[in-house]
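Practice problem: predict the structure.
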Amino acid sequence: MNEAKEAILARIRQATGQTSEGDLAGQRTYHTTSSDLSEIILDVFAERVLEYQAALTRIDAQQLPASIATACTERGVKRLVIPADIPDAWLPPGIEVMRDEPPLSYADLDASDGALSGCRLAIAQTGTIVLDGGARQGRRALSLIPDLHFCIVEEGQIVGLVPEAISQLAGYRSQPITFISGPSATSDIELNRVEGVHGPRTLHVFVVLGERR
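Answer:
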């Protein structure tokens, strides 16, 4: 694979008059970091998430459990599946939670009313949430099988641009990474939108305000 890659890059350098990999890298003119203020980055992220027909709530940390409980009541949610390491401080009162420890069966996940998780980071430019199976996220099945996903994003986890996110994820190449941009949706051959085929048809993002980047 590496030999094939090098052969392709060598042909590109030859065709463009470049002599080294450094010359090729030097042609990158796109922005790799955002110069926007944290407030603007947060606003852009919220705007993009809503464009994807997801819900978004901005709250302080102490308001999180009550806000999730309210969302559960509005959506008729009585039981949530959660990663094993979700802190008790996040849990909504009056809602049954099932920790994924030991791992729940796919049938149990499917029978739940939804899932609650954290995230690795979020990208304002595309309104994307990134999961890498790390702390407070659980395994991929938790965010794919239940029909509803409540995802908690801390303000300090939001980056401005995609290259910033990729840079932070550079050390996670050995494990699956999930990029979530809105609820699961696809289109058939006639371009009719179909939701819930590849994951939850409902996504509700809770942005916890606090420490900024």
